[in-house]
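> forwarded from #structure-qc
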């Protein structure tokens, strides 16, 4: 009986973690199919592993005459906004392109945010040891 209770709490925490992020899928000049919407939501849910302070993700599909444009807007805490656009013929490839761009933006922001108190890093330590040897 206890093992079943523990498994239930594990799934509840996973559900709560995903429910913090609101995903909005919208489109212009087209209808989004259910598999495309599911694929977009599945891919964008993975962005939380790069930056855990994401609050809302908006995915906009725009169908032009000859091409498709996908725009993904990520809203995070402290009014941080990350935007990625990708043009192409295939909507699935556009989603993948946006994910690559957002992955880079989120990792760079996270590194800058986490290391803002130590701007010098390893270079200042190396300079300090060289000063000690010169004296």
């Amino acid at each position: 009986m206890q093992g079943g209770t523990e498994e239930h709490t594990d799934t509840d925490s996973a559900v709560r973690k995903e429910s913090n992020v609101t995903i909005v899928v919208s489109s212009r000049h087209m209808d989004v199919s259910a598999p495309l919407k599911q694929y977009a939501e599945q891919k964008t849910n993975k962005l939380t592993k790069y930056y855990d302070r994401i609050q809302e993700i908006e995915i906009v599909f725009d169908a032009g005459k000859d091409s498709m444009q996908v725009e993904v807007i990520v809203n995070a805490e402290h009014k941080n906004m990350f935007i990625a656009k990708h043009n192409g013929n295939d909507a699935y490839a556009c989603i993948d392109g946006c994910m690559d761009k957002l992955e880079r933006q989120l990792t760079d922001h996270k590194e800058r945010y986490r290391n803002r108190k130590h701007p010098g890093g390893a270079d200042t330590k190396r300079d300090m040891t060289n000063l000690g040897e010169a004296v």
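QC bot note: Confidence is low (pLDDT under 50) at residues 1-18. The chain has four helices and four strands.
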